[in-house]
């Protein structure tokens, strides 16, 4: 049995790992048949985020969304647009299918929570923040996103401390979930991505160097189900932590690290993915990737390069046993699992 010290660290240290090492950090717990950890049920019902959204930074101690503010229930696009744009904290419960025509701007201190298993935003999406109204400290959970006219969710304009959890995203126009333009401290967890190509971009463009030193994102327990690419595609960010995700039948590639980004890919299950990890992609220059403890079934050989800052210098986390990832993720990801 593996044990660890779970105390949250208040000082961020800089540490690097070897691209070829397979050492398990001291404050990482291995879960599974040989090392008791979180059960499937417990893992799928986290009440607070794991990963970068949990970090005390930039004057914000973790991600709490609209906690402490009024709770409202919305059933129309007009009501949703009204409340996500209001000043101050709100817990916004989304009930039923809501049609919107464009991207709605979400400002700081909001929880947008789907009710039951039928909450849906269709025709448009959510943009976290504008250039004048930041979208910091936002939680989006338990919502189905379909047929967006642009991105389904866009985390942008320096938004920080964002938790995107247990959603179902498909059939968008551009990206299902893009994180860019100096956003930071984000966790993307337990989402089901399907029926789309450009899944989740991290970093605006090859020339947007203002993203250097930002874009710290954790992706865990997501189901990339037949989506073609960008799981994620990363520019400049360091570190990015990709763990315990299930990749299945991804036609172009799994993860791509470009433009000197630093990505740790660990404990993921790649099934029928010819190119699970790229170092550099298309016209973008190479990034850095460390991979450890992944499973490649019917898949190609991952590319790796360089060293990456160890995410454990920011937060503790639990790894589920890699061979259990397909069943855990399929049973726990998507909507209707968190009892909202």
TrEMBL record:
Natural source organism: Sphaerisporangium corydalis
Pfam families associated with the record: Pectate_lyase_4
SMART domains from the UniProt entry: Amb_all, PbH1
Organism placement in taxonomy: Bacteria, Bacillati, Actinomycetota, Actinomycetes, Streptosporangiales
InterPro entries: PbH1, Pec_lyase, Pectin_lyas_fold, Pectin_lyase_fold/virulence, PEL
Main location: secreted
Signal peptide bounds: 1-23
Ranges for domain Pectate lyase: 67-276
Protein's recorded name: Polysaccharide lyase family 1 protein
Keywords (A to Z) from UniProt: Carbohydrate metabolism, Lyase, Polysaccharide degradation, Secreted, Signal
Recorded GO MF terms: lyase activity
Cross-referenced SUPFAM superfamilies: Pectin lyase-like (SSF51126)
Family: Belongs to the polysaccharide lyase 1 family.
UniProt-annotated location(s): Secreted
């Amino acid at each position: 049995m593996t044990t660890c010290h779970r105390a949250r660290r208040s000082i961020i240290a800089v540490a690097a790992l070897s691209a070829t090492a397979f050492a398990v950090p001291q404050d990482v717990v291995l879960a599974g048949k040989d090392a008791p950890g979180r059960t499937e049920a417990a893992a799928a019902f986290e009440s607070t985020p794991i990963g970068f959204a949990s970090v005390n930074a930039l004057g914000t101690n973790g991600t709490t969304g609209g906690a402490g503010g009024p709770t409202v229930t919305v059933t129309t696009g007009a009501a949703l647009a009204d409340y996500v744009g209001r000043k101050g904290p709100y817990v916004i419960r989304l009930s039923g299918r809501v049609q919107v025509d464009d991207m709605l701007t979400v400002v700081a201190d909001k929880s947008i929570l789907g009710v039951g298993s039928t909450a849906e935003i269709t025709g448009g999406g959510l943009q976290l923040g504008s250039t004048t109204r930041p979208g910091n400290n936002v939680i989006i959970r338990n919502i189905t996103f379909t047929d967006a006219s642009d991105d389904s969710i866009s985390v942008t304009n320096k938004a920080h401390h964002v938790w995107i959890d247990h959603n179902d995203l498909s059939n968008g126009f551009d990206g299902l979930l893009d994180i860019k333009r100096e956003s930071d401290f984000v966790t993307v967890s337990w989402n089901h991505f399907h029926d789309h190509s450009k899944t989740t971009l991290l970093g605006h463009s090859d020339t947007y160097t203002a993203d250097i030193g930002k874009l710290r994102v954790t992706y865990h327990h997501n189901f990339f189900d037949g989506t073609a690419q960008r799981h994620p595609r990363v520019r400049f960010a360091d570190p990015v932590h990709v763990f315990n995700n299930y990749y299945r039948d991804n036609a172009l590639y799994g993860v791509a690290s470009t433009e000197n980004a630093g990505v740790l890919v660990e404990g993921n299950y790649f099934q029928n993915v010819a190119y699970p990890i790229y170092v550099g992609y298309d016209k973008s220059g190479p990034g850095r990737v460390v991979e450890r403890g992944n499973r490649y079934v019917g898949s190609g050989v991952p590319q790796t390069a360089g060293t990456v800052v160890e995410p454990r210098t920011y937060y503790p986390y639990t790894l589920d046993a890699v061979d259990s990832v397909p069943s855990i993720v399929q049973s726990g990801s998507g909507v209707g699992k968190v009892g909202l």
